């Protein structure tokens, strides 16, 4: 790194990142989606509509309603795809279940239900498996908490063992060989002098 | 050909059984000619399976629809290059691929392993022959790809449209190479246990095999993500599907092993743990195969439900009990040579890294199996989908990312306070600057905020390591920065290749976090109508529907919806999404209409366009437009990972010269290790 010290190197790195951050700052406004509708002429019939998959009615404003989309992301499509209702109805166009579930959810929302009430109504009707993830209560808590708890417990146990060993172990100071089996350094005095200098430089 | 193919399968069972019996009986001890016979059995098994594979290729290429497998997965008009992927498109062909890859690796292990481990090789052959016998036995009894039908259909069913994708030519072989090569480290581990040669030597013998396995698995998983992203049409690349999870599990345990093995090599610790990880990795590959092929858990990726799943379950239990029993019997001989001395040490960081990797593996396994457990305990069916996995694994993943940066900063054995301060100051500054910058630009979601800030921390660590190494070389040898950089990497490929892999991992995290800003819009457009979307990066995209055209292509009828795209008033060209109705050679529809997405990918964000349907049979089209930031970086991360992995694996030079090892090298490595202490 001739001509540039460590401070200079990292300074340049930080300075280089600033314009990128500012650029993103001016641009980033997620979620602003608008539709600029420019009505045009008629759409003629396709020569062979059957080849274009299952025909569907036009998209409505409710299909993009964040409230409905949010609910649909929480609810599983009953087909074997394993996807949520929103993803399935906008991906698997041969599925007849997800459009049906979509209409049902829109109907429940139109009745004035909140998202939680809609989800509760669906669970009451179809069972808990209709949720993309089980509710974190009762036995399901075991599912949510066991992995993290085990990691925490084992981490704590590991820490405790290491600390207790440390207390019992003799203090070892000095130079640490870096490579297995290298109990001696195979270098000439000149090389060792260079090494010592490099180590001092590293410490600065 | 089918007769020859079946004969080869039976012959493989015979020669592999011979090899296994001979290897485990121990009669080869003191009789070199028997060792040759064991090796011969391994090579013969490989040769026989190559012939069997050639037979399957031949019947596929000849469109011999009297063969059940050919009729089920091909048609006369299937493009030739997809005949390649038809080989492994079904249960039977993919099992044959499993067996061939296994026998290939078994042969390579015998051929390439250094002679100083020669006493392990007969046992290695015994293990690989046993696993091979199992797989081929499953094939000939339950899933023979050479099975003939009682009649000959005029044409085959064709290949599933989702498998008619370039990634399907390379993704499964890569994944299989990674999955199956895990047998070799397992075989060496068993060999070490059986022969009681439990020093660190056998670890050296398998480290590169594990790296090879890990690299193929990484490439296979990344290619699988690419296939899912560009073919399945939902706009994402990872959905925590059971089959995806099955490939991720051994990757996690292998990654843990690749870290913990360093502790065994350098300090003689964690011998039991490393053996457990290697055995566990092998068992997880068998478990994944069981999951994919048993139908026990529903998945879009899995093969048809069949009886072969129970074979795998039985083998999994048998192999698990046998291996861990063997490990238990050698337990006293696997005592650590030294004990861990300090929390502030590289060893401790690696231990916690292992804990997290295995913790994530457990959590993925737990989530995958939890629906079964819930049904057993409560009698209630539940779904465990992405929200569960994201919630449980998200914090663990962030902790792991933090440790990716912390580990290389801490010295082996014990780090002093001054050393820690010196090592952490710049990476922590990088973390702080990134965090503040992100807050400044309005990022408030906790997961991306933490992921990107920690990525800044890890990048700071890696850059600092490279910068210090280059400076040290510059001062010691007066090399220019570029030459110093090249020599630095060349002289310690394992360490600096590892850092490149760390960069790849942080790139993955950066890209994954971008998903939080995904935008979707569903819309109906008549020809000439437009819609605009504002992207998370503030660009205004205008999509104008041009119309739908219908035409016939090679083996399909196509309805193509075209959209003109402009970004902030600047035209980007035309994107085309298709509905495809695949037909066989007689023009009969073979599968439901499938959808091909249109994609425009840049480092900043991806435009993802899906032609959902025609509106009431007219040229008016329903579309879904999706904008997802940073997806491009997933594939770039994959590339970086491959580069890092290859650097790590590349054999060290043995001659003289500046690029090779010289007598001062250990001292130089020590210079980097102390007092910062980070030579890997």
What do these coordinates show?
The complex is a heterodimer of chains A (204) and B (680). Chain A has 204 residues and is an all-alpha fold. Chain A contains seven helices and no strands. Helix content of chain A is 52%, strand content 0%. Chain A is elongated, with a radius of gyration of 32 Å. The two termini of chain A are 15 Å apart. Chain B has 680 residues and is an alpha+beta fold. Helix content of chain B is 61%, strand content 11%. Chain B is built from 20 helices and nine strands. In chain B, a hairpin with a 6-residue loop joins strand 8 (605-614) and strand 9. Chain B is globular, with a radius of gyration of 27 Å. Chain B starts with a helix and ends in a 7-residue tail after the last helix. The model of chain B is unreliable at 655-680 (pLDDT under 50). Chains A and B meet through helix 1, helix 6 and helix 7 of A and helix 10, helix 13, helix 14, helix 15 and helix 16 of B.
Summarize the structure.
Chain A has 204 residues and is mostly helical. Chain A has seven helices and no strands.
Mean pLDDT of chain A: 74
What is the gyration radius of chain B calculated from CA atoms? 27 Å
* Unreliable residue stretches of chain B: 655-680
| Biggest sheet overview of chain A | none
Biggest beta-sheet profile of chain B: 5 strands, antiparallel
Assess the beta-strand content of chain B as a share of residues. Answer: 5-15%
Q: Number of helix segments of chain A?
A: 7
Q: Globular, elongated, flat, extended or rod-shaped: what is the shape of chain B?
A: globular
The whole-angstrom Rg of chain A is 32 Å
Mean pLDDT figure of chain B: 88
Q: Would you count the extended β strands of chain B for me?
A: 9
Helix content of chain B: 55-70%
**Percent in strands of chain A:** under 5%
Shape of chain A: elongated
